[in-house]
Amino acid sequence: MRKLFALTLIILSLMVLPSCTLSQSDNTSQSQSDFYAVTDYIDGFYEKDIINANFLIEYTAYKGPYFSGNASKSSSCGSGIIFSMQELEDSGVYIYYLLTNNHVVYNRPDYDRFECSVVDCFGYSHPAKVEYGDADYDLAVVSFESSEHFKVLEFALADPVVGDTVASLGSPGGIINSVTVGKVLSYRQITLSNSDGDSEDYSNVQFSVIKHDSYVTNGSSGGALINKDYKICGINYAAEIDGDGKGIHGYAVPLSKVTEFITKNTQK
Q1: How far is residue 42's CA from residue 60's CA, in Å, rounded to a whole number?
Q2: Which of 37, 165, 181, 208 is most buried when burial is the number of CB atoms within 10 A of its CB?
Q3: Please, which residues bridge with residue 168 across strands?
Q4: Is 155 exposed, middle or buried (0-12, 13-18, 19+ CB in 10 A)?
Q5: Taking the model in full, what pTM does it have?
Q6: Is the pLDDT of residue 96 over 90?
Q7: Phi-psi region of 230 (alpha: psi -120 to 50; beta: other; left: phi over 0)
Q8: Does the 53-146 domain belong in CATH 2.40.10.10?
Q9: In which region does residue 91 sit, left (phi positive, over 0), alpha (psi from -120 to 50) or beta (all else)?
Q10: Which residues pair with 181 in a beta bridge?
């Protein structure tokens, strides 16, 4: 299973708050009003139906004889967020488009068959397909069809700034509908560390990305970074993981690069 890329290890304690799956960076000077502000922010993910746009993405690659029963396979899972939708000719069927990471749905050249599915916030699976991906952004777009109505999230007006409160919405560890809260810490370029040795084929980000401390871990890849207006301001793609497999800092492709990626690929 492909996971979020691991970076240099740093230990950071987390304070788990009640109400859904939620964590916030530990801060001993935090006031009670700050605590309730975070709780209200989290409540909005349900009240505004933001969770309805969150999906788990499952991707499986196969190689070997199709009917032999001996085909080997490689599976990955990550997160995705709906950012666009269109109706199929007044049919009541909609095509939904989700953003995720390229490394989640990368077609490895040593495999010959690929299957993609997405799991909605209620736990139902839908067949899906990869529309396009780009290693230079580590972003991809996945689509699926459904007659159900799902939330379509808007993009923010600008990249978040250092100190902004943000939330990571995704499926860490395969747990859907997880929301964690933190702050934007900085913008920086990072060097990924990955045992596969071919990471540049599916993740080759060379620009500055958002460093934040809203909890992310394996399975958070492709999850949305959400601002206080409940709009997409980035897409998580990497994390620092400690020795126990817990996420420390998250790294997200900023909104400006997300929209650049979409524009580049839809104008082809």
Answers
A1: 33
A2: 181
A3: 180, 225
A4: middle
A5: 0.85
A6: yes
A7: left
A8: yes
A9: alpha
A10: 24, 167
